[in-house]
Specification:
2 copies of one chain form a homodimer. Chain A has 506 residues and is an alpha/beta fold. Chain A folds into 2 domains: 3-236, P-loop containing nucleotide triphosphate hydrolases (Rossmann fold, 3-Layer(aba) Sandwich); 271-499, P-loop containing nucleotide triphosphate hydrolases (Rossmann fold). Chain A is built from 20 helices and 10 strands. The first copy, chain A, has helices at residues 13-37, 54-64, 80-83, 89-92, 108-117, 123-142, 156-168, 178-185, 187-201, 216-236, 271-290, 311-320, 337-340, 346-349, 371-375, 380-399, 413-425, 435-442, 444-458, 473-505, and strands spanning 42-48, 70-74, 101-105, 146-153, 208-212, 298-305, 327-331, 358-362, 402-410, 465-469. In chain A, the strands form 2 sheets. Chain A has a 5-stranded parallel β-sheet, sandwiched between helices. A 5-stranded parallel β-sheet of chain A has the order 7-8-6-9-10, with helices on both faces. In chain A, helix 5 (108-117) packs antiparallel against helix 6. The longest helix of chain A is centred in the last third of the chain and has 33 residues, at 473-505. Chains A and B meet through helix 1, helix 2, strand 2, helix 12 and strand 7 of A and helix 1, helix 2, strand 2, helix 11 and strand 7 of B. Chains A, B: Keywords: Kinase, Transferase. Chains A, B: This is Polyphosphate kinase. Chains A, B: GO terms for molecular function: kinase activity; polyphosphate:AMP phosphotransferase activity. Chains A, B: Residues 11-233, 269-491 form the Polyphosphate kinase-2-related domain. Chains A, B: It comes from Pseudomonas fluorescens.
Chain lengths: 506, 506
């Protein structure tokens, strides 16, 4: 994989200087078209061997292009805020917006390679990380991002020579960090695992470019040309209008025997039972969130449901159990301008709770496979791939200790009608009912299909859906709280078990 | 100040229960109007004596109102990201958007009181903090924010009784932290400094409300009523259209002998001199940013100037001196939707560099007193008060070690014409020239007045303006770099001197 980057590519200075002016102009032009179009972000990943010219190349790109449209991001030591969130959070928060270019210096690849080379974990964990990177990049590209992955390479001999050269040069010796020398010790491992990573993550939508780092003219010109070609292709691509399907084709089987239809909508609680059970579950919930084991977890509760199913009321009963400092509630409505300039999942990543905290999403990332699907706000391809992206997302955050609990609050069509009418009559509830609600009601069947698909495709062991029979609000509220409690207790127990296992192994 | 909150206010349970339903409805209604209008944010500050019912009240407010529109923020231990920024940064990043309510539990007041009570500093520093709080709140209110400040009070006797009561109650004993007991030791100091703070920060636009905390019915009802009344007043206030003045009245004296007119626009550098000096200054700059004293500072460079004055080119020469990982460049254009939903300065606070870092603002917070003033995008009152707000902002960040260097790149009208024409002819520079540029040119005199006012009002010892004669790009670029270097050296020297002073005092 690296052979052709060790054969000593050279471009002489004259050729270089003759070609650079045109290249620069073309790059600048491309960069401004990128900004003007504002259609997609560009992400440049910089990896490879120390001393192979990574820093120099990034510096040069900033000189050739307009640095005001480039964000160079480094990911060294994690900050404590980053440590309190799932690993990918730090990358999500740094994603460039559409029309801009982000250069990620030190990224998910450097993190996994460092970890493997220094023996923090073995191949299976490396493969997991590789897989996660692939899925992240696939998703970003599906959302329109243009990703360049550069691996700057040197043979072992070349690297040693270069490090020595830098060290002897008083102007540059400050650049050699202890880490660099360390890498010269671990070169073989680094290259071995690097090869594994490159092999498995070079994909048509985001291929690796291995750049021989010895000769600066060759290196710079090659990177510049690759960038330009990739940018031009993406910029000249005709603007495809996403295929809009107002109501998506229903699944073939629609015999009304869906999960939703099989719910027992008569379930209810008497007032006395309700009050007793509610208080019990609220106290249990408050206790669990104060449990010191909570410090290693975070809790995410997702509320989806039919209009007027009682999401707000259920959320308030959950919140009432807690000190308001313990939770935050994120209502999801139409995305803001900044949110639209980022990949779909960005707006949810930014609201993820830190360890020990609890976030309620009042509607959520499932909007894409519900309202956006049914109303045709996104293309069929978009919502179809969303299922996989959502599962990936939930797996990633679950792996980091986040407990994800998802509720679909279901009511039947008659109950909805009654509630709509009631809302229109009570002054301080009028804000709760809009034209949209009546319109959505006409699409009852389309929504039902979307819900069933959603549950089928995203109810996983890691984060199952809980369907809540919500014709009776009391029943629904108690069920919600009880489910949250069960999920937290299960998570604590699993963690305890693992801790015991680890202990006994020692 | 606290006397009337120690006399034992009580509201009996029947009165309370009779009044609550209507109050809740009215609060809910107000809250949704707040959201619908989306005109202003609401900030509720919670302070006072431990055990006086702060937590309980916030919890109750979340139950009475819709918690999905409320953000409860706590400010305990600073995170390392917060520690790396000026003190107010943590509050700015948590400001609620227009239409929402933020409850700040632990805020600038708790921070200054804790510091003073525990002897971390003396009265002069407390007064500085008081003053900073006042200015912050004034600015927020001027931008439309509605601020409620609640001080929950207990007499010493009441507090001790309440802490003891909580301790003996097994359901609540977990709530008593060591800090609470500590406060019972420091009650007298806390009240003494609390009084000083309240006295000096109770203003017509954001008065304090002292609430006696003993009786929960009294406490809750009082807070609820105050909130409702304040909300209603603000919501019912007629939407005043800001007075739009397309071109602001020029200052009385306009005899063409302005600072701008007195610049020597013939200053220039020969190519050889330029190349030598540029390299020298770039090396000096790189060295200064690597200096270990830089770790206690951050650098902010603001670039403003006539259109086509060469801001971009100057910024690139600055950037070229550095490793791209050391700086970021923030181009300021029209604000995004989220930015418009926050106070004017919010978008700049969010981009401030952390300690050790360097941020270039390509256009800046001075937009308000330049383009927004001249084009009439904001009212006369807005840009007039902006001078003071900007000085406050720069003082705050300078106090935290941020070195602020501001450049106005000036060219004369003929030079601008030449450059505009040249830009229209060079293909890859066409993007740089728009209709707007030609339009702005017609307002040359209005802009000049705005610039002179700006310099007069915001060139301070803490962060002076540097006027750069930019008819000759070479001269301008070297002057920019030299000024940055001088500013950093001065800052390092001042810090060294202070360190020596501190040492010799010991």
């Amino acid at each position: 994989m690296f052979e052709s980057a060790e054969i000593g590519h050279v471009i002489d200075k004259d050729t270089f200087e003759a070609e650079v002016p045109a290249l620069r102009e073309a790059l600048l032009e491309a960069q401004f078209e990128l900004q003007q179009q504002g259609r997609f972000p560009v992400i440049v990943l910089i990896n490879g061997i120390e001393g192979a010219g990574k820093g120099e190349t990034v510096k040069l790109l900033n000189e050739w292009m307009d640095p005001r449209l480039i964000e160079v991001r480094t990911f060294d030591q994690q900050t404590d805020e980053e440590l309190a969130h799932p690993p990918a959070w730090r990358y999500w928060r740094m994603l460039p917006a559409k029309g801009r270019m982000g250069i990620f210096f030190g990224n998910w690849y450097s993190q996994m390679l460092q970890g493997r080379v220094h023996g923090e974990f073995k191949d299976p964990r490396l493969d997991q990380a590789i897989n996660a990177a692939e899925r992240l990049e696939k998703m970003l590209c599906d959302e329109g991002a243009l990703i360049f992955k550069f691996w700057f390479h040197l043979s072992k001999k070349q690297m040693k020579a270069r490090l020595k050269g830098l060290k002897d040069d008083p102007l540059h010796s400050w650049r050699i960090s202890p880490l660099d020398w360390q890498q010269s010790q671990t070169y073989d491992k680094f290259v071995k695992y690097g090869e594994r990573v490159l092999r498995r993550t070079s994909r048509d939508y985001a291929p690796w470019h291995v750049i021989e780092g010895v000769d600066s003219c060759y290196r710079s010109l090659t990177v510049g040309r690759i960038l330009l070609e990739g940018l031009r292709q993406a910029l000249d691509r005709p603007k495809v209008k996403p295929e809009k399907v107002a109501v998506a084709p229903l699944p073939a089987l629609d015999d009304q025997v869906t999960l939703i239809d099989s719910l027992d909508m008569t379930l209810r609680l008497e007032k006395d039972d309700y009050e007793e059970q509610l208080i019990t579950e609220q106290a249990r919930f408050a206790g669990l969130l104060r449990d010191k084991r909570m410090r290693r977890h975070a809790l995410v509760a997702v509320f989806e449901g039919n209009d007027a199913a009682g999401k707000g009321g259920a959320i308030r009963r959950v919140a009432a159990a807690l000190d308001p400092r313990q939770y935050s509630i994120v209502p999801i409505a139409a995305p803001t301008e900044e949110e639209r300039a980022h990949p779909y999942m960005w707006r949810f990543w930014r609201h993820l709770p830190a360890r020990g905290k609890f976030t309620v999403f009042d509607r959520s990332w499932y909007g894409r496979v519900l309202v956006e699907r049914v109303e045709g706000f996104c293309s069929r391809a978009d919502w179809l791939r969303a299922y996989g992206e959502i599962n990936d997302f939930e797996e990633q955050i679950a792996d980091a200790g986040v407990v994800v609990v998802k509720f679909w609050l279901a009511i039947d069509k008659e109950t909805q009608l009654e509630r709509f009418q009631a809302r229109e009559e009570i002054p301080f509830k009028r804000f709760k009912i809009t034209e949209d609600d009546w319109r959505n009601r006409d699409k009852w069947d389309a929504y039902r299909s979307a819900v069933c698909d959603m549950v089928d495709r995203t109810s996983t062991e890691i984060s199952p859906w809980t369907l809540v029979e919500a014709n009776d609000k009391r029943w629904a509220r108690v069920k919600v709280l009880r489910t949250l409690n069960q999920a937290l207790e299960d998570a604590f127990e699993r963690a305890d078990k693992q801790a015991r296992k680890r202990k006994s192994r020692k």
